[in-house]
Design brief:
Length: about 575
C-alpha cells in the first residue's frame, strides 16, 4: 500500500491530464514492486514453488488471481487428492508393480505436502482418495500456515491477474498486473457472480462499480533481471511474452514441436465444480436460473446415485450417505465437452493488447451453466428417501454462486524447453519390470499417474493417443522447467515442457506440488547465483542437492532407491 500511495502522489504532483494518466496506466505505469522471483500463479504448483523459493532465501512475489492460494487444491474445486491408482503387470513373468502404493508411500511424497495433508482433521470419507476435505480447512490448517513460515521472504498478491509482460531480447524484464479490491457493497469478497461475467473487469485497469484497481509492475530489486515463473493455470506468461509453446493437439505425434499437428482449439474439457448438502428435512431449492439446453446429456452412467455422491465427498461422519454430508461434484456430469477453454494461438496473439487471460468466456459461461444444470438434474434424480433434501451449498467454495472460483482445467499452454526439449510419453512409461521411467540426468522432481484425458465432443484425437500406456513412477527434468526463448523464465505444473499425453499424466495434485517445489528451488538458485536457465542446467548437480532438501528426486520402492544415486 505504501508503494501504491506513493505512485498516486507522483501522478497528482505531475498534474497530468486524465487521458494521459489513463494512457500511462494502460501501458504499465504503476506501483513498482521489486522481487527476486516473480511467480504468476493460481495453481498448486505456483504455491509450492513460492514456499520453496522463499525458504531458499529469495524475495518472492506470488501473483494469485483469486483470494485463495492452492489452485486445484482449493479455488478450482478438486479438494480430493488424486494419487496414482493403477498397477502394472508383466504378462510374461506376472510381475506386479503396485504404482498406487508406491505413489502414496511417505518417502515418495514431498514432505511439506505430506504434513499439510496429515494436518487435516475433517474428512469426506470419499472413495477416490484418502484425503477429501473442505478447501477452507486445507487453507487454514495447511497452506496459510506454510505461507506464514516464509515471512518476510514471501509476499502474496491476492486477486491479482497478469496483464502485460515486458521483454528485452532473451529476458523478461517486468510483469505488469492488476490487483482488484472489492467495494464494501460487494458480497462474498467479490465472488458473488460467476467468473465468466467478471473476467473483463478483473483485467481492466479502470475502477468499476464492483472493484477498485491498482496497477502493479513487478521487476527485479536491482539492475539485473528477475526470475519469472509461469505457474498459471492458463499459461499467461508464455502467451504474453510470445514464447514458444504447445497447445492442445497441435502435435503430429507425441512430443512433436512443429505445431503442424491437429487443432490448437482441441484439448481437454474443463469442469466447474460445486458442493451440495444433504439435510434431515425437506428444504426449498429454487430452480436452475440457467437451464442447460441439453438435459439429456446428464446421466448416472454405470454408477449409482450414492456412488457419485460419495465420489469426492468433502465432509461426512460415515462411509454411507448421511445427513449433513457435503458432496463436491466434479464428475462427468459437469465436464464441459462442448468447447475448448483456450483461444487459438492466432486469436491469442490478436488479444495481447487487450489481454483477458487468453480464454473463451463463451466456453466458461457454457461450463458454468452446464454445472448448474447438473446440480439441478442430480438433485432431482436423487433416490426417493433423499428427495427434496439436497441443496446447492453456497459457502464451502467461498462464493455466493456456489460454484468454484475458477474452472478446473486439465491442460493449458505448454512450454517448449531448451533446445526444443519436451517430455514424451515413452519417457514416463514402459514395462512393470522397468520399475521407473527414463532417468534424466537433470531430474528435479517425481510423479506418477496414468494417462487420463477428458475429451471434447467435436474434436478428433489421434489414434496413438488412444493406446494404453503403462505409466511408471517417472521423473521430471530441469529442462521441462525451461523455455527455449527466455533465459530467466521457469515453468511449473501444467505449463512445463511436455507433450499432451505427459500433461495428461502430470496434472494431478502431488505431481504439481513436486514440480512446483523443485521449480521454486531452481528459480531461487538462478536468482541468487545470477544464472540463466542454461547455466543452471550445466550446474544441475548443485541444483539437485538443493532440491533434495525439499522434495524427492528418486523413487523409494521396497526400501530401494531408483536410481540408486
Amino acid at each position: 500500500h505504501t508503494l501504491i500511495n506513493e505512485t498516486t502522489r507522483k501522478i497528482d504532483r505531475m498534474k497530468l491530464p486524465l487521458w494521459l494518466c489513463l494512457f500511462l496506466v494502460s501501458y504499465g505505469f504503476g506501483a513498482e514492486i521489486e522481487c527476486d522471483v516473480i511467480i504468476a500463479g493460481g495453481s498448486t504448483a505456483a504455491f509450492a514453488a513460492a514456499i520453496s523459493a522463499s525458504h531458499e532465501g529469495s524475495h518472492v512475489c506470488l501473483l494469485e488471481p483469486t483470494n485463495w492460494v492452492g489452485g486445484q487444491l482449493t479455488a478450482t474445486g478438486v479438494s480430493a487428492i488424486d494419487f496414482a491408482w493403477h498397477t502394472l503387470i508383466n504378462e510374461t513373468t506376472h510381475f506386479h508393480l503396485d504404482v498406487a502404493a508406491i505413489d502414496r508411500a511417505k518417502e515418495n511424497v514431498t514432505p511439506n505436502f505430506w504434513r499439510v495433508l496429515h494436518n487435516l482433521t475433517t474428512t469426506g470419507r470419499c472413495w477416490v482418495s484418502p484425503f477429501c476435505y473442505p478447501p477452507k480447512e486445507l487453507l487454514e490448517r495447511g497452506l496459510w500456515v506454510l505461507a506464514d513460515e516464509t515471512k518476510p521472504n514471501l509476499t502474496i498478491y491476492y486477486n491479482t491477474v497478469v496483464k502485460k509482460v515486458d521483454t528485452d531480447g532473451r529476458y523478461i524484464r517486468s510483469v505488469t498486473a492488476i490487483q482488484r479490491t472489492p467495494r464494501r457493497n460487494v458480497s462474498c469478497d467479490g465472488w458473488d457472480v460467476r467468473a465468466s461475467q467478471d473476467l473483463p473487469d478483473w483485467y481492466s485497469h479502470t475502477d468499476s462499480s464492483r472493484f477498485t484497481k491498482e496497477t502493479l509492475v513487478f521487476k527485479s530489486k536491482s539492475n539485473k533481471y528477475p526470475i519469472v515463473m509461469d505457474a498459471t493455470d492458463w499459461g499467461e506468461i508464455l502467451a504474453l511474452s510470445q514464447a514458444s509453446y504447445l497447445q492442445g493437439l497441435d502435435e503430429r505425434f507425441d512430443g512433436d514441436i512443429s505445431g503442424l499437428g491437429g487443432s490448437d482449439t482441441c484439448g481437454q474439457s474443463v469442469t466447474i465444480g460445486f458442493v451440495q448438502k444433504l439435510w434431515n428435512q425437506t428444504m426449498p431449492s429454487p430452480p436452475d436460473p440457467f437451464p442447460y439446453p441439453e438435459p439429456n446429456k446428464y446421466s448416472l452412467k454405470h454408477y449409482t446415485w450414492d456412488r457419485i455422491w460419495t465420489y469426492r465427498r468433502v465432509l461426512s461422519s460415515h462411509e454411507s450417505v448421511e445427513v449433513d454430508d457435503l458432496s463436491l461434484q466434479n464428475f462427468d456430469g459437469n465436464d464441459y465437452s462442448n468447447g475448448y477453454l483456450f483461444l487459438s494461438k492466432n486469436d491469442t496473439r490478436k488479444s495481447l493488447s487487450q489481454w483477458e487471460g487468453g480464454v473463451s468466456r463463451e466456453v466458461m459461461d457454457g461450463a458454468e451453466r452446464m454445472a448448474l444444470g447438473w446440480e439441478q438434474w442430480f438433485r432431482e434424480n436423487a433416490p426417493e428417501k433423499y428427495q427434496g433434501r439436497v441443496t446447492l451449498e453456497r459457502t464451502t467454495m467461498g462464493t455466493c454462486t456456489g460454484l468454484v472460483k475458477l474452472p478446473y482445467i486439465r491442460d493449458t499452454r505448454r512450454s517448449i524447453g531448451i533446445d526444443g526439449f519436451v517430455m514424451k510419453v515413452d519417457e514416463i512409461s514402459g514395462d512393470a519390470e522397468d520399475m521407473v521411467g527414463h532417468v534424466y540426468p537433470d531430474r528435479l522432481a517425481i510423479g506418477s499417474y496414468d494417462v487420463d484425458y477428458h475429451t471434447i465432443t467435436r474434436c478428433i484425437y489421434p489414434l496413438y493417443m488412444k493406446k494404453r500406456y503403462g505409466v511408471l513412477p517417472y521423473f521430471i527434468p530441469l529442462r521441462a522447467m525451461t523455455n527455449r526463448d527466455y533465459d530467466n523464465l521457469v515453468l511449473a505444473g501444467k505449463t512445463m515442457a511436455q507433450s499432451f499425453l505427459v500433461n495428461a499424466a502430470s496434472r494431478l495434485h502431488p505431481i504439481e506440488w513436486s514440480s512446483g517445489t523443485a521449480a521454486g528451488v531452481l528459480a531461487s538458485y538462478m536468482s541468487l547465483s545470477d544464472m540463466t536457465s542454461q547455466q543452471a542446467l550445466k550446474d544441475v548437480v548443485r541444483v539437485q542437492e538443493r532440491v533434495k532438501l525439499y522434495t524427492p528426486i528418486a523413487w523409494t520402492i521396497d526400501g530401494k532407491l531408483y536410481p540408486s544415486q
